[in-house]
Amino acid sequence: GAGVSQSPSNKVTEKGKDVELRCDPISGHTALYWYRQSLGQGLEFLIYFQGNSAPDKSGLPSDRFSAERTGGSVSTLTIQRTQQEDSAVYLCASSKSQAGDLRGEQFFGPGTRLTVL
Amino acid sequence: GENVEQHPSTLSVQEGDSAVIKCTYSDSASNYFPWYKQELGKRPQLIIDIRSNVGEKKDQRIAVTLNKTAKHFSLHITETQPEDSAVYFCAATPYSSASKIIFGSGTRLSIRP
Fold this sequence. Notes:
The complex is a heterodimer.
Chain A: E1 5-7, E2 10-13, E3 19-24, E4 31-37, E5 44-50, E6 53-56, E7 65-69, E8 75-79, E9 88-95, E10 107-108, E11 112-116
Parallel strand pairs in A: 2-11
Antiparallel strand pairs in A: 1-3, 3-8, 4-5, 4-9, 5-6, 7-8, 9-10, 9-11
Chain B: E1 4-7, E2 10-14, E3 19-25, E4 32-38, E5 45-51, E6 56-59, E7 62-67, E8 72-77, E9 86-92, E10 102-103, E11 107-112
Parallel strand pairs in B: 2-11
Antiparallel strand pairs in B: 1-3, 3-8, 4-5, 4-9, 6-7, 7-8, 9-10, 9-11
């Protein structure tokens, strides 16, 4: 079946512009995660959604970052006034949580490579 | 704050030998420890996970051990093969919690032919 998809796959923008990244999770997955991965680095947790709500936003690097999820499906990550240090691959993952918000295997999307000039 | 340390950052082993990657965590509430494998240019994929009610879990050539008292867990790969070459990430999180998931910094494993 269809996996997690993300768009765009690549985004080049100028410093100071806003960008919006999209994630389509696997159908039926109620949990959705955003991560940032800089070149050759680890996975930096940004935010987690259970349904439409985000219980913990403390992973967002600054107030220029925001995310939302509507209808319990698609999520968008918005970065305002982009800076060069925002350049990275932004990965989305979803999982089929069981009762409550129990964690399960995360399925990752292909990522969006963001380059801020 | 919460932290997961992963060692070594790079590891090179001869094909057929074993590889061990170690992680320590700081949040005593963590009770779910997944391991992800990321091949070059690809997305991370779960290879094995363990919950704190067990001390060891095996899946063919891969095993994970957990020491809750010492707050460390390890990934063991036996009879390594070229396709095991990848970056491996450990993570720690409370299983039933909405809190963030903390990943280790990754280990780049290279298998020498």
